[in-house]
Amino acid sequence: MMAQSQFSLLWNAHKRNICTGLSSLQQNGEFVDMTLAADGHHVKVHQVIIALASPYIKDLLASAQCPHPVIFLNKISYTTLCSLLEYIYTGEVLVSIENLSELLEAGKELHIKGLEDMKLAESISVNQPTVNDNDLDCSITMEDSESKYILTSMIDNDQPELSTNMDETYEEEEEDEDCISQDITVYNKSETVVNSSDSSTKLSVMQFTVSNQGSLQMILNRYIYYLKHTNRNNTRQWRCVDYLNTIKCPAHVFTKDDVVVQRISAHVHPFHDKRILKKVRAGAVFSAIQEAEQQRKKKQATNSD
């Protein structure tokens, strides 16, 4: 018998559609099932994508035995995490030459395929006086591949300094911080886990939550603050929650329009990672203060019943 004819159907845009589709799902927080944390920022991602990119994280996930694990990346900055995720989800990323070494080091630490064996080309020269910084390219090569990756250096514009002058009208808010259970499992000393719904480098510097008493709180760089003052020009003063207990931590922050304009005093205690993790698991961490305000009103209404 003659063999039946077979037809090959090929979609040329398949790979591009998969990459853009997965990236879009991640940015919109759709079907995400794990969280990565760095510099106090929590980014929700997909376990299967991260596991494919990193055998090391795959092993961590296999041992986690929970539906939505959270991993803190203590040695990695938030900017580098965003670059890593863009690389993992799309296959390429633009990174400034100043941040290139940190990105490659992070790729090596996490065993990210394609990054862990990547090296800066020895031919890269930093002394090129006739080349405009905006046109500066550098190439890096895989140790076991002839493929080259071109990364264009990008110059970030400095943000204007914001005034910290404050009006004299405040509303003061006090709260008692609840005791937090310390029985959180940490996978190892370098990595532990967390959440945020957007991997863009333009994400808000801070996140927000609500205390058990229904008071507004801010999460910034792995610390939790409670709202102490708000004035007419939308400037807010936030105090460390450990000011309210025997620690009396003096650290506080001023924000204006949800941008940090001033930090005063250093924290005198460890990070609040375990408290933050508990709030993440409860789905009580928000990227916008308006969302936290809505949650605060709901909680206050519940507490008043």
Automatic annotation (TrEMBL):
PROSITE patterns assigned to the protein according to its UniProt record, in alphabetical order: BTB
Localization: Nucleus
Keywords for the protein's UniProt record, in alphabetical order: Metal-binding, Nucleus, Zinc, Zinc-finger
InterPro entries the record matches: BTB/POZ_dom, Dros_DevTransReg, SKP1/BTB/POZ_sf, Znf_FLYWCH
One GO cellular component term noted in the UniProt record for this chain: nucleus
BTB domain span: 32-97
Protein's UniProt keywords contain S-adenosyl-L-methionine: no
Gene Ontology biological process terms in this record: regulation of transcription by RNA polymerase II
SMART domains: BTB
Main localisation: nucleus
Coiled coil: none
Highest rank taxon of the organism: Eukaryota
Annotated GO MF terms: zinc ion binding
Tagged with keyword Calcium: no
Protein's recorded name: BTB domain-containing protein
